From TrEMBL:
<dbReference type="InterPro" id="IPR023430">
    <property type="entry name" value="Pept_HybD-like_dom_sf"/>
</dbReference>
<dbReference type="InterPro" id="IPR009665">
    <property type="entry name" value="YyaC"/>
</dbReference>
<keyword id="KW-0645">Protease</keyword>
<protein>
    <submittedName>
        <fullName>Spore protease YyaC</fullName>
    </submittedName>
</protein>
<dbReference type="GO" id="GO:0008233">
    <property type="term" value="F:peptidase activity"/>
</dbReference>
<keyword id="KW-0378">Hydrolase</keyword>
<dbReference type="GO" id="GO:0006508">
    <property type="term" value="P:proteolysis"/>
</dbReference>
<dbReference type="Pfam" id="PF06866">
    <property type="entry name" value="DUF1256"/>
</dbReference>
């Protein structure tokens, strides 16, 4: 769980999507494709941060559980069974760096924000700082991130998380999960196209 201050400062509409937008899944897929590395040899690692012990903070584990069984190439850490949270985040990051060579990391987390921003999802470059919403000091993580604003910040964040509507969290989780699954398909097809073109050029050069 992280805390958004000055939400969506860029002012670009495509930076955020409301969970009730009919185009939400396709918009999120397109945003992901735009941010993924153009160097197709980099391993893509997704860290779904959160815990199943809090309604507001279970967005990440819900997504991790949904996509882990569907993805063929992207690597997923953080599920309802094996969550990545405050206690094991640093250990998980270290494990990922040891297991995957120069990975591109996508961090996913729920967050608290302004009242008018509840229900929005953001896809953006750069890292997030989990734990800020509940005053925990954790390392920043991610080359890019996906966040869902699940409730309001400013007062008794722990209780706010416990009283977040499950419908909102599950709706966001479904959209983000489908968006990631579709993005992987597009990304892998692009990678195959690049490889086919490279091999064709090599054959031409030899002949």
């Amino acid at each position: 769980m992280n805390l958004k201050s000055g939400l969506f400062q860029s002012g670009k509409n495509q930076d955020r999507i409301h969970y009730e937008d009919e185009r939400a899944t396709s918009l999120l897929t397109n945003m992901l494709i735009e941010h993924l590395p153009k160097l197709f040899y980099k391993p893509i690692v997704i860290i779904c941060i959160g815990t199943d012990r809090s309604t507001g903070d279970c967005l990440g584990p819900l997504i991790g559980t949904s996509i882990k069984k569907e993805l063929s190439h992207f690597h997923v850490y953080g599920t309802l069974k094996d969550p990545v949270h405050a206690v094991n985040l640093e250990e998980t990051i270290q494990y990922i760096k040891e297991k995957h060579r120069n990975p591109f990391i996508i961090a996913i987390d729920a967050c608290l924000g302004r009242f008018k921003s509840v229900g929005y999802m953001e896809v953006a470059k750069g890292s997030i700082k989990p734990g800020a919403g509940v005053n925990k000091e954790l390392p920043e993580v991610g080359d890019m991130h996906i966040t869902g604003i699940v409730n309001i910040s400013g007062y008794m964040e722990f209780l706010v998380l416990q009283n977040t509507r499950l419908h909102l969290v599950m709706s966001m989780a479904d959209i983000i999960s489908i968006g990631i699954i579709e993005a992987e398909k597009v990304y892998l097809e692009k990678r195959m196209t690049v490889r086919r073109n490279w091999m064709a050029n090599q054959d031409t050069a030899i002949n």
